[in-house]
Amino acid sequence: MEQLSVRSYNHTYPILIGKGIRYKLSKFLKGKDYSQLVIITDENVYKHYLNDITDDLNRDFIIKVFTVSPGEQAKSLKVYEEIQKYLLAENIDRSSAVIALGGGVIGDLAGFVASTYMRGISFIQVPTTLLAHDSSIGGKVAINLNSTKNVLGNFYSPDLVLYDTETFLTLSEKELRSGFAEMVKHGYLTKNGLLNRLKLEMNESINPMAKEFDRLLLESIKVKQKIVELDEFESNERKFLNLGHTLGHAIEAIKSYSHGECVMYGLLFCLYVSGVKKGQPQKFLDEDLLNWVFSLKYPLNLITKEDLDLLVNKMANDKKTINQTINFVLLENIGNPYMSSLKPEEIKQYLLDFMEMMN
Ligand SMILES: NC(=O)c1ccc[n+]([C@@H]2O[C@H](COP(=O)([O-])OP(=O)(O)OC[C@H]3O[C@@H](n4cnc5c(N)ncnc54)[C@H](O)[C@@H]3O)[C@@H](O)[C@H]2O)c1
Ligand SMILES: O=C(O)C(=O)C[C@@H](O)[C@H](O)[C@H](O)COP(=O)(O)O
Ligand SMILES: [Zn+2]
């Protein structure tokens, strides 16, 4: 088992990463005097993993379970309200804890519930997707409003992240691809060679059971950990973790691709613009990169010309937009990101040129 820790403003929490550790959650909660534990999960994860964690927990704690339908729609005010009413009806008190058992949707939703119920109760992350190597760390919790991503949220760090990577065995190829996009994003945010190792080791397919994968995942988690420790509340460096998300979130809001698929497309766009700004359109987005992304089967035609106005409207609601100026994370070099403001007309023109290149 690997162990890292993250320093948050009011406490430091461990991230435990290993295979089969979901069976031992109770051991890692030893000494915690929670009145009740409420597991929030979705129907898919319930089927695969609920018993694995409750068999053990039941011996030491009173457990309640709230299950939501799988998918992004669960990050809604409606589901949020249903859960809050459930907590109240079940007499969940301030000494209770919420366990998020699932992917990023469950982590974001359950974390936001925990951060607001009775002004905040304890929260434990038990992530089950590859994408959650990103979402379970750093304390961003949120739900969507209409289709706009993560508008209602908080920074609220968990007491513990228990990451059983054996759960990747039941993930679909699409979900692996989604999570891997955030690993590639982390690769662009560090100078430590992660990106090249990702390209080398995962050159034809994303294989989480490959010998090298655990190390790559750990490196990716460390990139995130370092940035959130540096700037937990996103005043400066943390903005860089949004690489690919200005466009990615806008696409996610209007199309039905996964978060990671949209982030990958948004990332490729930012690589293209970064190159153009340096007078070398292919500096970052070269033939090799495109072939790699293509071979990993990322969808590369997510949007059409007809989507541009709507996309720019959505970007106007991005949390990085200030005084109606839309901001993107671009790259000076790999591991050297910077923020750049673009006008709507510039964005549309860049998008048209980018789309032509991708066809
Ligand atoms: N808070 C953050 O810092 C942060 C970071 C990145 C992404 N996010 C958010 O995370 C969300 C995406 O997360 P996600 O991709 O994990 O989505 P998700 O939670 O919807 O999981 C994807 C799908 O996989 C299923 N699933 C989960 N674990 C499984 C397993 N082990 N085996 C089989 N099926 C399983 C789920 O039921 C779901 O259908 C988005 O809402 C995004 O905005 C948040
Ligand atoms: O942790 C962060 O900071 C991130 O930006 C990580 C992103 O991968 C993640 O999708 C996050 O939820 C986006 O945050 P938002 O503030 O743009 O909603
Ligand atoms: Zn993301």
From TrEMBL:
InterPro entries: Dehydroquinate_synthase (IPR050071), DHQ_synth_AroB (IPR016037), DHQ_synth_fam (IPR030963), DHQS/DOIS_N (IPR030960), DHQS_C (IPR056179). The lineage of its organism: Bacteria, Bacillati, Bacillota, Bacilli, Bacillales. Belongs to the sugar phosphate cyclases superfamily. Dehydroquinate synthase family. GO terms for molecular function: 3-dehydroquinate synthase activity. Pfam families: DHQ_synthase (PF01761), DHQS_C (PF24621). Binds 1 divalent metal cation per subunit. Can use either Co(2+) or Zn(2+). It comes from Piscibacillus salipiscarius. NAD(+) binds at G104, V105, I106, G107, D108, T128, T129, K140, K149, T167, F168, L169, T170. The gene is aroB. Zn(2+) binds at E182, H245, H259. Residues 66-177 form the 3-dehydroquinate synthase N-terminal domain. This is 3-dehydroquinate synthase. Catalyzes the conversion of 3-deoxy-D-arabino-heptulosonate 7-phosphate (DAHP) to dehydroquinate (DHQ). Its EC number is 4.2.3.4. Its cofactor is Co(2+); Zn(2+); NAD(+). It catalyses: 7-phospho-2-dehydro-3-deoxy-D-arabino-heptonate = 3-dehydroquinate + phosphate. Its main location: cytoplasm. Keywords: Amino-acid biosynthesis, Aromatic amino acid biosynthesis, Cobalt, Cytoplasm, Lyase, Metal-binding, NAD, Nucleotide-binding, Zinc. The keyword Plastid does not apply. Pathway: Metabolic intermediate biosynthesis; chorismate biosynthesis; chorismate from D-erythrose 4-phosphate and phosphoenolpyruvate: step 2/7. It is found in: Cytoplasm. Residues 179-321 form the 3-dehydroquinate synthase C-terminal domain.
